[in-house]
Structures are given as C-alpha cells and as structure tokens.
Amino acid sequence: MTSKTFLRNLLRVTILCVIASFVIAPLLATALGGFKTNAEIRTSAFGLPESWNFEFYNAIASDPAFWRYLGNSLLISVLAVILTLLVGAAAAYVFAQIRFFGSRMLFSYLLLGLMFPFATAILPLFIQVRDIGLLDSYWSVILPQTAFGLSLAILLFRTFFEQLPRELFEAAYVDGCGYIRFFWRFTLPLSTPILATVGVFVFVQSWNNFLLPLVMLNSREAFTWPLGMMQFRGEFVTEWNRTLAFVTLTIMPAIVFFLAAQKYIVAGLTGGAVKG
Amino acid sequence: MADVHLRHINKCFGPIEVIPDIELEIPHGSFTVLVGPSGCGKSTLLRMIAGLEKPTSGAIEIGGTDVTGFEPSARGISMVFQSYALYPHMTVAQNIDFGLRLMKMPTSEREERVKDAAKRLHLEPLLDRKPSELSGGQRQRVAIGRSIVRNPKVFLFDEPLSNLDAALRTQMRVELAELHQSIGATMVYVTHDQVEAMTLADQIVVMNAGRIEQVGPPMELYDNPQTEFVAAFIGSPKMNLLPGQAIGRDDIKSVGIRPEHLETHMENGKWAARAGVIENLGSDTVVYMETDDFGSVTVRLPGHHPLRTGDRVFLTPDEKHLHLFGKDGRKIHAKDALSAPAT
Ligand SMILES: Nc1ncnc2c1ncn2[C@@H]1O[C@H](COP(=O)(O)OP(=O)(O)O)[C@@H](O)[C@H]1O
Ligand SMILES: [Mg+2]
User: Fold this and answer.
1) What value of ipTM does the predicted structure carry?
2) Atom 4 of ligand 1 has which residue's CA nearest to it?
3) Among B10, B35, B43, which is best to mutate for testing ligand 1, by the most ligand atoms less than 8 A from CB?
4) Same domain, B206 and B265
5) Is residue B296 less than 8 Å (CB to CB) from chain A?
6) pTM assigned to the model
7) Same domain, B17 and B144
8) Which residue, of B228, B259, B288, is where some domain finishes?
9) B151 CB near a chain A CB, below 8 Å?
10) How many domains, in total, are found in chain A?
11) Last-in-domain residue among B228, B248, B271
12) A253-257, Cβ contacts within 8 angstroms, sequence gap of 24 or more
C-alpha cells in the first residue's frame, strides 16, 4: 500500500523533473553560456564554466544601446498591457452587465480575433499603420499588440465578471453607485487574479514579439530587444557567449514580471474565489 | 411621513406575467411582512419598491411622492439582501461608510454615523475586518448597519435571515424587532417563513402566485383567514382542512379547524380516528391522527397527555372555530354558514 503510493509519487516527481528540465536546461545553458569562452560553449554547452568570466555581461550592461533596447521593450510591453487590460475590461464589463441589441453578435465578432493568425495580418497592418502615419513610433507596435490581445482578454474577463454576484451591484446601486463607478471601485479590484493572468500573457507575448517590431520600426532608437539582439548578433557573429549574455539579461524582466504576478495567476486559473 | 403605496402594479418578465395587479398600502412606521411560498413574486415586488426592477405598469409612491421613475438612491430606501452582498474588498467600516461617501456627506458626520451604527449593532470591535473574516450573524449585522446609516425612510429586507442557523435566526429576529421599535421607520420585510412573519409583523401581506390573498395584523390572519390559502399558510402546526362532508356539507369545498380547537374523547365524538406520531413539546402535545373517513388531522393538546400511538379516539371540533371555504377557496361568512342545513 505505502510502497505503491511511494512508487506513484516517485513516478510523478520523475516526470515533473523531466518536464521541468526541458524548460530550465536551455535557460540555464543560456545564462551559463554568458560566462564561458566560445571554445568552451562548443565543448560543454551545459556544464558549469571553468572560470566565471563576467566581462561579457559587463560589456553588455555598460552598453547604452542595450539599455535603450530594454527601455523601449519595457515601455511598449507595459503600455500594451495597460491598454489591453483597460479596454478589454471595459468592453467585457459592458458585455457582462448590460444586455443590448446585437451584443451577442458583437461579442462573437470580437472572438473571431482568436482565430486570426498574427502573421497573416502583418501586411495589411503595415499598410494601415503607414497610412495613419504611425510608422516607426512606439504606437505602431503597441496598438496592434493591444488589438490582438483583446479577444482573449475580453473572453476571460467577461466570464470572470459574470461570476461576480449580481446582488453586489444591486447593493452598490442602492447605495448610489452607478455603472462606471462600480467598474472602478468593484469590478477591477475584485478581478486582480484574471487581470494578472491576462497581464502576464500579454506582457510575455509583447516582450518576445519579433515580427511586428521588425516590420514597424526602422530607426535604432526605437528598437525593441529582439531587434537589438539581431543587430548585436550581426556585429558579433561568432561570439555566442555575448549573444547568450544578452539574451539572459533581456529575459530577466519577463521573469520578474511573471514572479510578481504568479500568486494571482494561480487564483485566476482556479477562478471564482470572490464569494462575499 | 413614509407610507408606501403600490397602485395597480403589474409586472411581466417578457411574456410571463409575474404580478397581475397589486394594490397595497403600507402605513408609516409599520413593520409589514410580505409572506408567501417561493416564487410567488415577493422579491419582485420588493425590488420594485427599491427601484431595482421597473413595474410594467402602475405607480409606486413613497411618502406621497411618486417615485416610479426614480433611481434607488433617490427614493430614501435602503435594502438588505438575502446574501448580504457585502463589499468583499472593503472593511466593515468602509462597507457601512460607502453609501454616505457617495452622498458627499462631510467626514465628521460620516464618522459619527458609522460609530453610531456600529455601537447599535455591536460591531465596534469588528470595524477593521473584512467580510470574509466575519461569521454569518456578524455579516448580517454589517448589512443592517449599512442600511441604517443612510437614515432611510423605508427599510427593505429580502429574506435576511434565511442563511442563518435556527438559533441565530431567533436572536436576529428579536434584534430586528428591537431595531424597529427604536428607529420607528417603515420596514418592509420579505420572507417565506410564516413564523418570522407572525413574530415580526404588525401587518402581514400574504401573497400567492402574484396576488395578494389577505392583508392584516398577524392575529387577524390567524383567527380569521379570508381564503383557504391563508388558512393553510398561517399557523404552525397547520390548520386542518377537511372536505365539506366532514360536517355534512356537500356545497362547500372544505372546512378548516385549527389543531388546538379539536377535542379528543375516548368513547364518543364526531370523527373516529387513530393516533399516529405523537410529539411532546412539554407545553403542549401535537398528535398526528388518521381519521377513518377524512384523511389526516393534526391535534394540539395542552400540557402532557397520556395518549399513545395506535389509540382509538374520537375528535370533536369546536363549532365556534370552524372556517368554511366555498368552491372558490374564499371564506363563507358565519351568517351564511348558520343558514346552512344543520348536521
Ligand atoms: N429577472 C427575471 N426574469 C424572469 N423571470 C423572473 C425574474 N425574476 C423573477 N422572475 C420570476 O418571477 C417569479 C417570482 O419571483 P420572485 O419575486 O423572486 O419570487 P419570491 O421572491 O416570492 O420567491 C418567479 O417565477 C421567477 O421565476
Ligand atoms: Mg425571493
């Protein structure tokens, strides 16, 4: 009996370890690779470095261009997240609270966005953005990313908002609270789990997006880190250790953001924990 | 003055008519209880008074003003919900304060009122807690506190005690009655529990399928039910309703007799019966009997009683307390009853 549960647990832990190693090993190899010489990377990609060379990390961290890229990425991602959350939550709130003519059709239309592959849209998107005159600005990346994040955001938000008890709104309404105030004072504060979940999702997508900035941004001042990395790799083609150090440093913000929001995400995925 | 008038209220949800036509007067300062079985439209009626639901036609007046088109916050009402509907992310103090804040009341007065309400409801030590850290009874008090700080003309309650356990319910019932006595405001209270209605109300409105069956003080409804429905609904244990033949009348639908108005005899009487389950409550004894000819009958006997399950007995109703109901379910008045052929 106990040996059976032990075996089952052992199996479970083993499987989890294998899966985790698939995720962690490349990350670790990348981080460690930044300390190695090029020769060492080729001979032992996963081992610990023979000597810890901080020079590559230092070189990148002291390069103002790197911080520029990182800053651009951060600005774009944060704005995309804020916009997606605000617009998505506001739209979902209307869908959840108010029944109006054509609401179901409009909702289905918004959900169509879920099935629309990003790459297909890139050419019309480019033309549209060029015509509006936003090319080579941050908005040329932020706005499309927001638009593409909205489908999922609205879908998840609406489901979550609908689970807020109806009497909560009615009690606030009797107290003199209207729809808009209720949105700010109740819906948003009570929805942190789902806001965090969608926020992380949008952030990571935006942070790692390569295609859109590549098409929209031309000047180096506006480059995000994936573009910067390409630039960088062009300069140091054979120096893998520099590239790995670069990547390691740029992944950091995404990881930090994820860890900060993690606590809420778990709650968001298990859902519906707001019984008064 | 804060009397409430409902004038020819009609309410439909889409094609379904929930309330056909209701006319009701709730006097100033009264504790009026709307009582009726689940789904008969009590909540809907209350929500129309609150302004959460618009009547399909008809008008609602509070204190002489037609408030039919008013927002809930402009009606001078407050409402306590069945689920309490406390604001989960706010402390008790903030919950109570929220409505006052929206009224743009000066801070000093707000604090004064919150303190007052907290004191009245024994919430002072709990003011900094979140609703999730409170027990059911405490949450109920916060919900009540939230409604009394607004100093409403009319309090509305929708089954506020139904989520509490029996002991707490009795205690809160007493507290509500005290609250009404000390505030003296008009209160409208919805429940499906006739015991709550009997103990709290000075005016009971019995509803059935969207219609008002009878309006009156508890004892009048108890002593003098105007319809068969009210007779069966008010009182515990329920009034016995027997077919007309039981008193030799084929022209009526049923005859009602309360359990305490039946006498038992061992040798002779009107209806032969056999004792079933016997409940000894100490102060009195409730016996569920099976009559030979007219179905089951409940009898309430004073004090302890030597009767045993299976005993043969005879029951005799107290003629003065017979309630006769015609084919339409309405009461046949005494003088009509007298002119009927004797048994
Ligand atoms: N929003 C609504 N839409 C449709 N039907 C409703 C709605 N609210 C209540 N009803 C119907 O109206 C009837 C009365 O409901 P309600 O007033 O809640 O009854 P009660 O409070 O007496 O139990 C019920 O049959 C219910 O199904
Ligand atoms: Mg109800």
Assistant:
1) 0.85
2) B13
3) B43
4) no
5) no
6) 0.83
7) yes
8) B228
9) no
10) 1
11) B228
12) A253/A70, A253/A73, A253/A74, A253/A207, A254/A203, A254/A204, A254/A207, A254/A208, A257/A200, A257/A203, A257/A204
